[in-house]
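Contributing: when you submit paired examples, paste them exactly as shown. First protein:
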Amino acid sequence: MTAGRRVAAAAVAALTTAVVRGVLDTSPPGGPVAWTRTNHRGEPVSMLEGPAVAAGLLAGSLVGASTARGGLAAGIAVAGAAGFGLVDDLREDTATRTKGLRGHLGALAHGRLTTGGLKVLGIGATAIVAAAVARPAGGHAAHPVARAADTLASGALVAGTANLLNLLDLRPGRALKAAGLTAAPLALTPAAGGVAAAVLGAGGVAVEQDLAEADMLGDGGANALGAALGTALVLGAPRPVRLAALAAVVALTFASERVSFTEVIERTPVLRDVDAWGRRPAAAPGAPGVDVAPGAPTA
């Protein structure tokens, strides 16, 4: 893939994100109130960034993908993650709020399908389809069982990365910074460069308003961003790297059920400095600032 194509992918993603965000601002579906949530400071913030970023990722990935299969795989993964994420954003039952992967799977086990549970199932299904379409880097193994296992592992990587980026979207700019740092080296690879460049383009446009605490990704945007990153890994990384990435994603996901990422970041000087870059000063002691999911009531 040429450098020009990567630049085109980033530019198209950035332009699409900016244009869609502007259009949504003038005429948000369902009205502004439907897209307004309370952030970690107890202040109102708009989730319109999410669908704008998802649109940018879709457009940029289609322009930048090195193959038709790669473009289709990225489109399926991003559209599925964004769509099911937006359902959870806009249709979640706040009266019986269920949080965490364990909570949603537990509800499913008891016969109750939450919007979060629907998101888990929907993103998982579209991620597997995307992985099957992508034909991961290094090719499929010859044996049918090995091919199926490879596809399932790659699908789990796409879905797991989508979920992990959402878990990071608890402070302004955090998910966008993590996505950018991960996408930057992937943008240099031949097979994944276009999709990764789309992540950089869309995120680059969104980060200013995100850091200003005017916008937030929400589930729709964060899931889409993570799905794009996971697809880039599937397209560009050899099987051992994909499996190592999947192990890391699974470990971090399970860790999130027991520890607060925000507390870990605050205790680690380098992470704390990167996390705080470009953001307003932290809330004063006693002010709202607990580690809550986007849209959840603050303490």
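Second protein:
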Amino acid sequence: MVELRTTFVLAEPPRRVPASLRVKLLFDGAGQLGWLIFGFGLIFVWVFGARPDLSFYRFWSGVETADGRVTQVTDTGITEGGDDHTPGRPVRAYDYAFVGPDGREYGGRSYTTSGRIDPNVQWVRIEFPQGDPRISRIQGMRRTILGPAGVLFYLFPAVGVVFIVWRIRSGLRTAALLRGGRLALGRVTAKAGTHTTANEKRVFRVSLNYQTEDGVPRTLTTRTADADKLGDDEQERVLYDPTNPARAVPFDTLPGSPQTDDQGQFRPAGARGLACLILPGVTLAGHGLYVYHLLTGWRPF
């Protein structure tokens, strides 16, 4: 058992890392922001870009054409362009039917912002890849509401995934450090402000010198918005990985703010830690049910 400053006790590794504390490490902070962005981003994907038109490459090697007729014109309620003074161009959907080279009738839907076709009087030219009338479009139109640009809507949930993955990887490393890390005493040697802020607090670059249990001196440089927690004491606690001493974190700035009990074991994070599962759970359940609906047609009501 390691005891520092007579007021802090940390059990010898391997230590227990309670499940609620692990949840907090994996899903709190940037993880919650990531799940929020991911969840809302997917809503935009389903509404606008769930089916971006990525079939354009199928038309590069040559197309066949056929006469088709428009069977229905629908206003999608979506506009492109425009600003506060100029209205955008409405996107309209055109359902059509045509007879393929095999004598069978095929249908489809194309989208455009230009003009309006009267389904009662106007015929249109349909194009499709050579030998495959199952994939078609009206010439000059696109096959989805936003065309290939619909892919851009995937950027929103993708940003969320980046935050989620980063937090999970960081949380796993922190959990491993809590379980098997060693304590050392360090001294702050430098503290400099950066141009970055986090939660409206300025981020500082802080350097500490510490010595591992085998007597090897090490230097730790960290970036934190909680710089006021470092340098307030003559010596600072440092938790480092004995198998890779370069991997170290000042104890006072550990993610999740873990607390220890009288035996030097980490305390559970309690309800606050488990609450970090609410947003990921709601996000996965909601979008999972919607995907299930798309695949099976199931409706809850």
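If you have annotations for the second protein, write them as plain sentences, like these:
Residues 56-145 form one domain.
The longest strand covers residues 63-80.
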